[in-house]
Amino acid sequence: MTQRSISDSRQERLESILECLLAQPDASAQTLAARFGVSLMTVHRDLDELQRRGIVRKFRGGVSVQRTSTYEITATLRRLVAMPQKRAIAAAAARLVEPGQSLLLDDSTTAATMLEHLLEIEDLHLATNYLPTLTRVAADGRVCLTAVGGTYDTGHESFLGVAAVSAIRGLRVDTVFFSSSSADTDGIYHQEESIVAVKAEMLRSARRRVLLMDASKLGGTSLHLVRDWSSIDDVVTDSAAPQELVDTLRSRGVSVTVVAPDHGDDHDPIATNEEK
Description:
CATH class of the largest domain: Alpha Beta
Radius of gyration: 19 Å
Low-confidence stretches: 1-6, 265-276
Oligomer: single chain
Strand content: 15-25%
Shape: globular
């Protein structure tokens, strides 16, 4: 179904509402109406539109865009979250790649952020199930590309399901770069079974497995276990990561790279791989 169009000014307000809710999760409709200079009825219509798109959830007394153990926010919203951390993590992860390698990228926005760096590396072969990554790499034309097909999920903007798992099972790549919703000392988690099946198969298909995860996801769990840490070779995270978890992973033989967030200035965001 074609999404009905809305005015540019309203679209800008919708994006601003999302940014406000990310910064102030307990903001009420009244607060939003006052902030944007519109009526309460207009704000409720905006929130209804965001809920229709699957970006927020309205409930009695408020609205939420926060992660829960059973519900993942959409790709649209994930692209707005923790971008300084994701930029730094992506830059560090790209430094693990050498010319001529084969890579598998999942449908995470962090892995997609690596493209800024990967497209400059010669003779790569990249496979992914994430439509925005497929579109960008195909348009660029410098990287050999394999599309992982399946059932298209609009919320995740990726191909999932039995066909996707089967396609991934037929691949053997040098490295997989992936993210997930949460992780603790026992392993890595995600809320949705269809996503778990794809990520788990990606890990089985790669010789080196690199988890990309900003600190906001560390220390918690979600409904389904993707894999325990014995399946992971490297973790790239940011400087707010819990030190206890970092130490635990290193003691288990996982290489942990810690980076400073990239706020867009010209400093090198890559920290050393030593203790924080």
